[in-house]
Amino acid sequence: MEGTYQVKQTSFEGPLDLLLDLIEKRKLQINDIALAQITDDYIAFLENQGDFPIKDTAEFILIASTLLLIKSRSLLPGIELSKEEEEDIHDLEDRLKLLEETRCLSVHIQERFGASVLYFKTPSKITAPIFTPDKNTNTSKLYEHVKRVLEMLPIKEITPKAIVRKVISLEEVVESLISRVKSTLKLSFNEFSKRGGGKAEKVEVIITFLAMLELVKRGMIQVTQQDNFSDIEIETEEVGVPRYS
Q1: Overall number of domains in the chain
Q2: Is the domain of 107 the same as that of 180?
C-alpha cells in the first residue's frame, strides 16, 4: 500500500508485522535481519511524510521492540533479567498479543459495517422561518414604524478637524543660522532654507530671509549676491570648527 512503511533487506522485503510473524514462526532467522538498518529506513520514511503518523509509529515501536528482544535473546541466551525487566517483557508480549487480536477482529468490521442499523438518523428540526403578518399589517404601517426607529437612532456627530501648522519663530531661525554659519566656511541661502530637506515653504523662506537680515544688521555675517535673483552666499569672520560636506 502506498504511504505504508515497507522493510527492504536482502533476506526479506515486505511489511514489518509480516517480518515479525515469520520470525516468531521460525520461518526466518532474526540474525539475518539488520534492525539498525530498519530503524534508519523508518526514520527516513517519516521525514518524507506530510503528517506525522502517530498510530503507525506506535505500532512500529512495539514491533521493533519485540524484534530487538528476540534478537537480544538469540545473541545472549544465558542473560539473566531482573524482576522489573521480566515484567516489562511480559507487558510487551501482552501488548503484542492484544495488537494481533485487534487485527484479526478488524478484518470483519468492514464486512459487517452498516449491515444492521440500530439507530436511524432523525430528520432535522431546523425549519425555514415564514413571515405571517396579521390583517392589520400593511406597507404604510411598516413604513411608519421603520421611520420612527430610524429617528430614535443617535446621530453621529462629526467633529471638524483642525490642522495646526508648526509655528517657526524668528529667534529660533536666527540661532540656527548662527550655529550653521559658524560651523562651515561658507553657506548658501538656499541650502539653509531647505534645512529640513525637500522644498521649503514660502513662510519658511521669508522667516529665513528676515533672520539673515537681522544678522547682517548685527554685523555677525556678510552676504553677497552675484546677480539678480541668484543664490545668496553667507559668510562670517567668527568661524569655529569647520565642517566639510
Answers
A1: 2
A2: no
Could you give the 3-state DSSP secondary structure of residue 181?
helix
| Residue with the three cell numbers 415564514 | 130
Q: 141 vs 53, which has greater pLDDT?
A: 141
Q: What is the domain range of residue 100?
A: 7-111
Residue 238: per-residue pLDDT: 64
Q: Is position 105 within any domain? A: yes
Residue 145 belongs to some domain of the structure: no
Share of the chain above pLDDT 90, in %: 0
Mean of all residue pLDDT scores within the chain: 77
Degrees, nearest 5: CA angle 104-110-115: 125
For 20-51, b/e burial (b = at least 16 CB within 10 A) is bebbeeeebebeebeeeebeebbeebeeeeee
Q: How many residues are present in the chain?
A: 245
Q: Which three cell numbers stand for residue 147?
A: 421611520
pTM (predicted TM-score)? 0.33
pLDDT higher at 101 or 185: 101
118 inside domain: no
What b/e sequence results for 97-117 when a residue is b if at least 16 CB atoms lie within 10 Å of its CB, and e otherwise? eebeeeeeeeeeeeeeeeeee
